[in-house]
Amino acid sequence: MEFSHISVLLNETIDGLKIKPDGLYVDGTMGGAGHTREIAKRLTTGRVIAIDQDPDAIRNAKEAGIESDGRIVVVENNFKNIKIVLKRLGVEKVDGMILDLGVSSHQFDTTDRGFSYLYDAKLDMRMSQTGLSAWDIVNTYEESRLADVIFQYGEERYARRIARRIVERREIATIDGTLELVEVIRSSMPGAALRSKIHPARRTFQALRIEVNNELGMLRDALENIVDVLKPGGRICVITFHSLEDRIVKETFKYLQQDCICPKEFPICQCDKQKEVLIITRKPMIPSDEEIEMNRRSRSAKLRIAEKMEVEE
Question: What is the dihedral of CA 124, 211, 52, 80, to 10 degrees?
Fold first, then answer.
């Protein structure tokens, strides 16, 4: 199956990078390589390093011959390891990096990956296809921990009811499939919630995916590492798809833009913190009505951009 994915906010992200023809850029979430290819088009002697943790994305990119373009280097890894990736390539600093944090269309539409609540598949949701799976969480987490995951990462008001019903069901037999889990979720919710336009399993599936892939913890760690490897004037562009991710990006950029974090009552700064970035997008950029009409999955996307400043050693 071809690794298909429509790049969201494509022009806005590429323009936001302020690409130099001889620059070195990183696409931290290659997916279907839409952003990667657009960056490469604007390069002459420059290069773009395309990173993805999904073996399917790597295999499909190589089968498509993406590396035949001498400006593109494909790396199987996680963007949180950006410093390790660059060190292995003999690179110290880059001119810009993008992150598109959405789940790709390929991952949603490949039924055996278990990301979707619309298809019957084994509970999985692992982007890297290794480690902890959604099956492990649903069938082994204690009730209170499961409820916390669903509430915190899915912002699901019925999290405790859902967790309780999951535990009750798995005492009879393990919950193995996506649609089996959907039915458990449905049975946990009142009629009014089931009549909502939002699918009753959407928030729970989002929560499980975030927990499986440690998406929020990974993002917090990665953003500061990415800023560290940017050259002065280099930019980081981040596309998020739900409020929890966007809040982390917003707060991290805000922190990095501060030049003092001392308590207000301190008469003189004692923290020696330096301003590391300039926030370019005071408010996040969002898709146009035309883009949303063409790609419904773009409707919740937000793009935030920051630029690395000169920092005294």
Answer: -160
Taking the model in full, what pTM does it have? 0.88
Q: What pLDDT sits at residue 134?
A: 97
Contact (CB, 8 A) for 279 and 306: yes
Note the pLDDT of residue 313. Answer: 55
Give the closest residue to 107 by CA, choosing from 301, 260, 297, 304: 297
Domain boundaries, position 57: 10-105+216-308
| DSSP classification of residue 280 | S
Asked if residue 232 and residue 182 are part of one domain, the reply reads no
Q: Is residue 2 part of a domain?
A: no
HSE-CB for 160 with a 13 A CA cutoff = 1
Q: Are strands 277-279 and 302-308 parallel, antiparallel or unpaired?
A: antiparallel
Residue 186's pLDDT is 97
Q: What is the pLDDT of residue 1?
A: 45
- Report which secondary-structure segment, H or E, holds 47: strand 47-52
> What's the total number of domains in the chain?
2
Does one domain contain both 223 and 78? yes
> CATH no. for residue 81?
3.40.50.150
